[in-house]
Design a protein that fits this description.
Layout: H1 2-9, E1 13-27, E2 33-38, E3 46-48, E4 55-63, E5 69-75, H2 82-95, E6 105-109, E7 115-116, H3 123-126, H4 134-153, E8 156-166, E9 173-174, H5 177-180, H6 185-188, E10 198-206, E11 211-218, H7 235-248, E12 260-264, E13 271-272
Parallel strand pairs: 5-6, 11-12
Antiparallel strand pairs: 1-4, 1-8, 2-3, 2-7, 4-5, 8-10, 9-13, 10-11
Helix pairs in contact: 2-4
Length: about 280
Amino acid sequence: MMRVLVLALSALSVTHGGYNVGLGRGDITGPAAEIGMMGYAKQGQNTKGIHTRLFSRAFIIEDVDSGTRVVFVSVDEAMMGQLVKIGVMEKLSSLFPGVYSEENVVLSATHTHSGPAGFMQYVLFNVPNLGFVAQTLDAMVDGIVQSIITAHGNLAPGKVYHSVGVVDEEASINRSPTSYLANPEEERARYPGNLDKDMVQLSFYNDQGAALGVLNWFSVHPNSMNNTNHFISGDNKGAASLMFEKAMDPDYVAGKTPFVAAFASTNLGDVSPNTMGPR
């Protein structure tokens, strides 16, 4: 997958040059000990350390002609919650009055199954981790806001490139092929198989042609690490982000690079990364 993306940086078609773009990153890791983990809903799967730190990666695009501005944020967590969005918007409203709102800020979780839980406002989601954990929520809100602050501060004229390609490597499998066969035949006939192998990518460059970052979507679950894992981890998508960023900026510490790479979630439903079966 890394090879596919690196090649994509030099083989894209221009979609529009009239943009201001800004990218940023923030740490959302949260409590790394004795906190239930979100994803597998398994009591006793508590954090006992860190495999990789968790990050929020923000991408701001502003159309110069219309002044329309949008923010997409990819967050290394299992899912997004209303409390997180409310907390983020409250801080952004104070920092940038009238600039960011629920209408132009999108928060998206990568769906890693190895992040700390307790940030949801619904009882059902907090049962496995035995209750609400303010530390988890605060770390997410603060890290997301920081990524947007950084992206806002980096806003400058740039270009956004769009590409779509097929990932030929065996990067995923359908974990429930019998369920897929239960779909109507006419629906299944619309697709070449039971997997979506397309990768969609936006690549960001400044006006001088230097690469600033990438934001892509590929359908695969970030659960390469199973429910026996106790270490906080961005899993495969988080690892891919860190490796791509490090490849682009080798002289920087992982998670501190100027280049920002987000492997965001998409239609990952029954798509597993465990191509050799569950382990």
